[in-house]
């Protein structure tokens, strides 16, 4: 009896929880090793962490303005499509579906599995097959929840955001207590220039920016936000500042308790920290970290399904994925599409190789999206935006993103070349299928398959426009 469409159920608190829940996840618990390894010293690693936070704030401000200018959901995809055109938009969608998002989800899932099993096998490392099995179980649980209810997914994200902040507090407090007692020996000669290798710095930034990634999540669900013109800028500014402060204090705590070699040797930095500083919580903190990763998986599925939903609505993805479940009001086909690729990457992948693999494509397209903001301002000077950032913010953010992407070819040519090939492979697909429309005769089998799947999944097209 009701119209079928995505309801506006994301309030300011839920938007803040979505951002915190997406940013504070596996990154702060696995990335310190990657940042330290590629920056060379404790001091330079802290500089990288702060620079990544500042860069994330610049990007978040750019996306907040884009979110007030462009009223559709879809995040990076819709911003690139609306500002730079259909070909760059499709190339992002292609790379996001086949490389960026499944690799990102696999990294978070593997971190979830590793931390979930750590208390049961300590002091030994958990068996790799067991880690991958638990990782997949966690991912499938979140997938099922997002297929079932938007409201319950949002409530879970709010609850897990509190858990994430509690996990950070349990690391920060004992570290700060030891630092106040004068334990500064691990900060001696913090800026050792001999260990600094400049061509590895882009990989350090990739690891740091992975930990901050998530500041763009509200842009994916713009149509479901209550009062987006007010709530998008407010949510991103408060959440990014909160995370910057939390991450800097967490890293200082890590280095206060663990030396440089301890961090580099640890497969799970947070667990090593607790073993050294707070043995009474040895079984608690890994579970809190695993729940943090669980929240990041939830936020990732929640938002990326909206990208596929919008791309289908724009005619660049099969029409089935713009359909909504008639009772649940969830984009069920878009939610379910990712699980085969994520399953494959969890089964065959390694966290740090996956991290470098998808970071190239992600930051290339984020840089293009903020370049699109500059282009959109130039093309539409008459358009009033309720939130506007100074021009130097998108200009500097775009230059840094594209420069880091270019430099990464020297740092990790193999994984970056694979990521570049994945992006370029979208060109023939675009010109054969999207640009050159198929005839009705060729479309007929797809119409038949779509109809059968529509009946099976109980989904229909959105009946009203909310953008």
UniProtKB/TrEMBL annotation:
Membrane topology listed for this record: Multi-pass membrane protein
One Gene Ontology cellular component annotation held by this UniProt entry: membrane
GO molecular function, one term: L-amino acid transmembrane transporter activity
Domain of life: Eukaryota
Keywords tagged on the record: Membrane, Transmembrane, Transmembrane helix
Location relative to the cell: Membrane
Pfam families (UniProt xref): AA_permease_2
Transmembrane regions: 12-30, 42-64, 76-100, 120-142, 162-183, 203-221, 233-257, 277-297, 332-354, 360-379, 391-410, 416-434
Name this polypeptide is given: Cystine/glutamate transporter
């Amino acid at each position: 009896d009701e119209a079928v469409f995505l309801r506006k159920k994301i309030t300011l608190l839920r938007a803040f929880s979505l951002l915190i829940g997406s940013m504070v996840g596996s990154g702060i618990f696995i990335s310190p090793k990657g940042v330290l390894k590629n920056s060379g010293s404790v001091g330079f690693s802290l500089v990288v962490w702060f620079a990544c936070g500042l860069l994330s704030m610049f990007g978040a401000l750019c996306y907040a303005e884009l979110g007030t200018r462009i009223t559709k959901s879809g995040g990076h995809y819709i911003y690139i499509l609306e500002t730079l055109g259909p070909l760059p938009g499709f190339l992002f969608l292609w790379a996001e579906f086949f490389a960026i998002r499944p690799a990102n989800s696999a990294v978070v899932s593997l971190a979830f599995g590793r931390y979930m099993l750590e208390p049961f096998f300590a002091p030994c490392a958990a068996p790799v097959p067991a880690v991958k099995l638990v990782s997949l179980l966690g991912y499938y649980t979140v997938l099922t929840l997002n297929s079932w209810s938007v409201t319950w997914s949002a409530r879970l994200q709010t609850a897990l955001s509190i858990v994430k902040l509690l996990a950070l507090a349990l690391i920060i407090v004992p570290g700060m207590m030891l630092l106040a007692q004068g334990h500064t020996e691990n900060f001696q000669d913090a800026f050792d220039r001999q260990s600094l290798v400049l061509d590895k710095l882009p990989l350090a930034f990739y690891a740091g920016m992975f930990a901050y990634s998530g500041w763009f999540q509200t842009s994916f669900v713009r149509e479901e936000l209550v009062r987006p013109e007010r709530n998008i800028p407010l949510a991103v500014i408060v959440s990014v500042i909160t995370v910057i402060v939390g991450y800097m204090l967490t890293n200082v705590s890590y280095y206060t308790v663990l030396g440089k070699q301890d961090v580099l040797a640890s497969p799970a930095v947070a667990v090593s920290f607790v073993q050294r500083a707070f043995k009474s919580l040895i079984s608690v903190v890994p579970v809190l970290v695993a729940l943090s990763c669980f929240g990041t998986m939830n936020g990732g599925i929640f938002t990326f399904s909206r990208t596929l939903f919008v791309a289908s609505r724009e005619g660049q993805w099969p029409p089935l994925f713009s359909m909504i479940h008639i009772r649940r009001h969830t984009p069920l086909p878009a939610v379910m599409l990712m699980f085969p690729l994520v399953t494959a990457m969890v089964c065959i992948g390694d966290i740090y190789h996956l991290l470098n693999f998808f970071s190239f494509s992600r930051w290339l397209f984020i840089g293009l999206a903020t370049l699109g903001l500059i282009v959109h301002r130039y093309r539409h000077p008459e358009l009033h935006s309720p939130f506007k950032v100074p021009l130097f913010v998108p200009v500097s953010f775009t230059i840094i993103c594209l420069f880091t992407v270019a430099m990464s070819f020297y740092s990790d040519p193999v994984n970056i070349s694979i990521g570049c090939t994945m992006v370029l492979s979208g060109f023939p697909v675009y010109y054969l299928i999207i640009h050159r429309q198929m005839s009705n005769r060729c479309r007929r089998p797809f119409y038949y398959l779509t109809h059968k799947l529509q009946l099976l999944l109980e989904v229909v097209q959105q009946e009203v426009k909310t953008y």
